[in-house]
Backbone:
């Protein structure tokens, strides 16, 4: 998977620099999940990629907060050793429980990897229970992975307000493929000049990733 490969390469190239996963792939794989290609359950990509944090959902605000805290801890442009405890309260992130990282005061524990592997019905039970907490006022969820790994997923960050979303989409996006691509990219054509009017969907269809990634609350742009 791209996230696992890129995370490994980043850690090789930049020793001691924290690696934060994000985007659609990270968001959909933040918990134990079913992999259609390999036809089996897999643990959170946060564990497999051995990264430091994972941002799930629409992550502009969470990513900015992480960057600001990293910058605040820098001295003369150099960052001290990464201390995960400085980031655990940020909504919209997931992290691993490890040395010096304890469970939050309140949380909901989901069925873990071994339970889901032996009883597939619990997979839907875990999904439904997670969705009960997947809103800004929800509780963190805890899920055991394989072996002794355990992850915590914080509630999602609040959707952007209309003015924030307007400012975001007013940025000078290139709307072009990377210059290294000389061939025509068919997948780019239908979306190159499309307009995002809103985010979120309350439908919750099992075949669609929008509600799981963007949330059920509708957030819209101005006319």
Residues:
């Amino acid at each position: 998977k791209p996230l696992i490969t890129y995370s490994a390469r980043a850690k090789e190239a930049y020793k001691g620099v924290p690696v934060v996963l994000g985007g659609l792939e990270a968001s959909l794989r933040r918990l134990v999940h079913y992999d259609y290609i390999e036809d089996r359950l897999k643990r959170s990509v946060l564990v497999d990629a051995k990264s430091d944090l994972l941002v799930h959902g629409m992550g502009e605000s969470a990513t900015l907060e992480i960057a600001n805290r990293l910058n605040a801890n820098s001295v003369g442009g150099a960052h001290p050793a990464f201390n995960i405890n400085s980031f655990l309260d940020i909504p919209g992130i997931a992290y691993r429980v490890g040395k010096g990282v304890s469970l939050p005061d309140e949380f909901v524990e989901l069925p873990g990897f071994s339970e889901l592997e032996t009883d597939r019905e619990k997979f839907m039970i875990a999904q439904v229970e997670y969705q009960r907490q997947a809103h800004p006022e929800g509780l963190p969820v805890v899920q055991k992975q394989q072996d002794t790994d355990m992850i915590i997923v914080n509630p999602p960050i609040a959707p952007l307000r209309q003015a924030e979303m307007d400012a975001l989409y007013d940025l000078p996006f290139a709307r072009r493929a990377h210059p290294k691509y000389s061939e025509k990219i068919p997948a780019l054509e239908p979306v190159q000049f499309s307009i995002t009017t809103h985010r979120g969907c309350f439908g919750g269809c099992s075949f669609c990733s929008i509600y799981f990634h963007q949330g059920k609350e509708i957030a819209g742009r101005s006319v």
Remarks:
- Strands lie at 20-21, 33-35, 40-42, 53-55, 93-96, 108-109, 141-144, 150-153, 198-199, 219-220.
